[in-house]
Write a structure and sequence with these properties.
With 496 residues, the protein is an alpha/beta fold. The protein is built from 18 helices and 14 strands. The strands form three sheets. It has a nine-stranded mixed sheet, sandwiched between helices. Strands 2-1-4 form a three-stranded antiparallel sheet, covered by helices on one side. Strands 13-14 form a two-stranded antiparallel sheet. A hairpin with a 2-residue loop joins β9 and β10. The longest helix is centred in the N-terminal third of the chain and has 29 residues. It is extended, with a radius of gyration of 31 Å.
Length: 496
């Protein structure tokens, strides 16, 4: 384990003159003084820090202030603002400003000169970062902290030199575009659970068997269809990262996966890392390096909260979830994180949980009832998958009940249909909230499942939603209700 260092004020190591071009700086300022509207052509490229010379930096700041206040930019308006600007006074004051546009005949090369300044500013910032890193390391700073500082500075530098949105055409989506659906990682029939370039999360209370579910996902990806899930890449690779358990327990997880896959020798397509003893920053670094080196198709992050310092920090939560999305897109893989529910409310904890819920392709919920754990789609961007169940026998998960059997789905759909006929007969129309409440009371299902059933009823054309937001039985269903005697007692006695 690395040893913490005692922070101290590092001694600054001076460097030589930084890269700059006074000629380009004067050319840009001269063009802006020559043609007031020219500022709009470089306002998204340059800021005051792009000017190395302090007098030129002050002049450009004045020009920015004038334009932001809607005033014209010329030699007179700029000269009126130089009071108290010591750098400009030192360079010659009014005489220096008047000389800037003397040799400028046209603004034709303005953008070219502006990009020269931008590149030089990027070089100066990188050199300054290297200088700071050297100084901190010489002072005994922690390598991980210095790496974080360098990475953050480099990312900001790249954004400065190549601003986000600088070429909007690259971001446009057109009606005529032929965009392929994302390649599946795991499916259940026609329902997509996980796809490449996306992230998902497993949620549940403590001891709900979330880790067992992650093992099910891994073995299903490798071709085990016992749980009714199909792999999109059965010959692919999996990276399993555990940040909560000791090595001995992580090894048990590894052996469990091998048994479920019927493997008896080492298989290089599965990589398992134990990161319990590392800091959250170190785990982020290891995660990124492991994905880059192993190039897995599916990543299980058991203990996804352990890669963040404060899950109640909105800014840090967005940064970490953004990192996961970036990695999944950049390496064309799927990342599935395991998270705990908060005590009492059943929601994912903190801003981190809220970001996970908003950005995840699928949020799988695991609920343990006696010896059976049920997996349901708490949230999904795709068609909801059917609930499936498992129990633990001889330390291994095994399916409970018939998995994705058509006859079971038909029975479930039949009961949804019957409940809707009871609630909406007469004819009757209801807003979503009222329909949801009555459906929950009659069916006994919780809010999430009831919402899914209402969506299913619309999909199967049992009910329809009108433009005014009311739900009604379809015409065919209304006719069927008249010819059948379906009441509450009959519905409640039907199997689901």
């Amino acid at each position: 384990m690395r040893q913490p260092y005692k922070k101290q004020e590092p001694e600054f190591i001076p460097m030589g003159t930084m890269p700059n071009s006074l000629e380009a700086e004067k050319a840009v300022l001269g063009a802006l003084l020559l043609e007031s509207e020219a500022f709009d052509r470089v306002s998204d490229i340059l800021n005051a820090d792009c000017f190395y010379n302090s007098a030129n930096r002050e002049i450009y700041a004045i020009i920015c202030d004038l334009r932001q206040s809607g005033k014209r930019v010329d030699m007179i308006t700029v000269s009126q603002q130089i009071g108290g600007k010591t750098a400009i006074d030192g360079a010659g004051g009014l005489v220096y400003i008047s000389m800037l546009s003397v040799d400028i005949l046209s603004t034709a090369n303005l953008e070219q000169h502006a990009f020269v300044l931008l590149e030089l500013a990027a070089k100066r910032k990188m050199l300054t970062t290297c200088q700071q890193a050297t100084t901190l390391l010489n002072a005994g700073a922690d390598v991980v902290d210095v790496c974080d500082m360098v990475k953050l500075s480099t990312d900001e530098n790249i954004k400065t030199f190549n601003p986000i949105g600088s070429n909007l055409k690259d971001l446009e989506i057109h009606f005529s575009d032929q965009i392929q659906e994302p390649d599946p990682i795991l499916k259940q029939g026609d329902a997509l659970l996980m796809s490449r370039g996306n992230i998902s999360f497993i949620k549940g209370k403590a001891k709900a068997r979330k880790s067992f579910l992650s093992s099910i996902f891994v073995t299903s990806f490798f071709g085990n269809d016992s749980f009714g899930l199909q792999s999109g890449s059965p010959d692919g690779k999996v990276l399993f990262i555990d940040s909560e358990q000791a090595n001995s327990h992580v090894h048990k997880v590894l052996r469990r996966i091998y048994k479920l896959c019927n493997w008896s020798i080492e298989n290089s397509r599965l990589k398992v890392l134990a990161l319990r003893e590392y800091s959250f920053k170190e785990r982020q670094i290891i995660l990124e390096k492991a994905i880059k080196d192993y190039r897995p198709d599916l990543i299980i992050l058991d203990g996804a909260v352990d890669i963040i310092g404060d899950f109640n920090s909105a800014e840090e939560s967005k940064q970490v979830i953004g990192l996961l999305m970036k990695l999944s897109t950049e390496y064309n893989c799927h990342i599935c994180g395991v998270l705990h529910e908060g005590k009492g409310n059943g929601e994912l904890r903190g801003h981190y949980g809220a970001e996970a819920l908003n950005k995840g392709e699928t949020v799988f919920e695991v609920v343990k009832n006696e010896d059976v754990s049920t997996v349901t789609p708490n949230a999904t961007r795709n068609m909801p998958f059917d609930d499936f169940h498992f129990r633990i026998e001889n330390s291994l998960p095994e399916p409970v009940g018939d998995i994705a059997k058509p006859e079971k789905s038909a029975l479930a759909n039949g009961k949804i249909q019957s409940i809707m006929r009871v609630i909406l007969k007469a004819p009757k129309a209801m807003k979503h909230g009222d329909l949801l409440t009555e459906y929950m009371e009659l069916s006994g299902f919780a809010k999430r499942a009831a919402n899914n059933h209402i969506a299913k009823a619309c999909e199967l054309c049992f009910i329809s939603k009108s433009a005014d937001g009311f739900y009604r039985l379809t015409k065919l269903e209304s006719r069927n209700v008249e010819s059948e005697n379906i009441n509450t007692d009959v519905v409640q006695a039907m199997p689901f």
